Amino acid sequence: MKTISKETDPRYLACPIRQVITRFGDKWTLLVLDILGSSDQKKMRYSEIHEKMLDCSQKMLSQTLKNLESNKLINRKVYPEVPPRVEYSLTELGISLLGPLKVLVEWAQENMNKIIKD
Questions:
Q1: What is the pTM assigned to this prediction?
Q2: Is 56 in contact with 50 (CB distance < 8 Å)?
Q3: What is the pLDDT of residues 56-76, one digit of tens each?
Q4: Main-chain dihedrals φ then ψ at residue 79, nearest 5 degrees
Q5: 23: which residues sit within 8 A by CB, 6+ positions away?
Q6: 75-104 burial string, b = 16+ CB within 10 Å, else e?
Q7: Interval 10-65: pLDDT, tens
Q8: Which burial class, exposed, middle or buried, applies to 37 when counting CB atoms under 10 A from its CB (0-12, 13-18, 19+)?
């Protein structure tokens, strides 16, 4: 998570959209939320998530999952087995973000050709 300097204007700190984008506005976070939200399963393992986003490094995916957990958007459950099994699921807060995320995904699909034109 990005840190905010002491000189930051207090108006920026009070701006909800700045806070949201700073905490989880990167492409990997939104992709993980979309993958978990569109899965038929309520829980997914790390390897299942990574399978759907092979262009994301394992290190970046791990950091993204930790960030999502610290921002209370996903749950991480570790089972006491050998080898350990870890499952990820959306929290209620994460589920509440799926509606706006779905709208953003639909917008992107409708406008992608306009965005990537040379």
A1: 0.81
A2: yes
A3: 999 999 999 999 999 999 999
A4: -95, 135
A5: 1, 67, 71
A6: eeeeeeeeeeebbbbbeeebeebbeebeee
A7: 777 778 888 788 777 788 999 999 999 998 888 999 999 999 999 999 999 999 99
A8: middle
